[in-house]
């Protein structure tokens, strides 16, 4: 009787601890992490949905050069208000501007994933979640800024932290807003040959 094919190696093309934690909820762990360094600047006229999909695929391809025989999982999360792509907040001024824009209104979170198999087949999926924030008082914004959770986060907030207390309504994938939509991730990894219960 022929032996079962070995489980392919899974490489996570992200240094994000949030994505590693979410992946663990599926009962699997990446054998290693390959952080990619790509230009994440939006292209002229690029919309939030297309931006997320393009970056996830680019990260997967960038990591494949360091792990050619592995299944590569990459993701990108973009917060959009209309046609506008909100930045990843790297300073207080940017985070404050993002929160002021999100205050009292709905926005969309696009979380794209790309799974690249060793044979070069790229599988892609996109989770789109609508989030509504309460109207934020200036003191609430300043308290959130002081806590530091915003640093490096798309749209200047982390839903898995105290910003969840601002969220009055969410339609879609909570894990996608955190950074890795688990339904789509499980589906694509299974299609790529990983054994996931």
Automatic annotation (TrEMBL):
> In the record, what terms sit under GO molecular function?
dTTP diphosphatase activity; UTP diphosphatase activity
Which residues does the annotation list for site: Important for substrate specificity? 18, 77, 160
Gene3D superfamilies recorded for this chain?
Answer: 3.90.950.10
Q: Which reaction does it catalyse?
A: dTTP + H2O = dTMP + diphosphate + H(+); UTP + H2O = UMP + diphosphate + H(+)
Q: Which InterPro entries match?
A: ITPase-like_fam (IPR029001), Maf-like (IPR003697)
GO BP terms: namely: nucleotide metabolic process
Q: Locate the active site.
A: 76
Chief location of this protein within or outside the cell: cytoplasm
Output the superkingdom of the source species.
Bacteria
Return the EC number.
3.6.1.9
Subcellular location per the Swiss-Prot or TrEMBL entry: Cytoplasm
Q: Which SUPFAM superfamilies does the UniProt record give? A: ITPase-like (SSF52972)
Its job = Nucleoside triphosphate pyrophosphatase that hydrolyzes dTTP and UTP. May have a dual role in cell division arrest and in preventing the incorporation of modified nucleotides into cellular nucleic acids.
> What is the protein's name according to its record?
dTTP/UTP pyrophosphatase
Q: Which organism is it from?
A: Novosphingobium fuchskuhlense
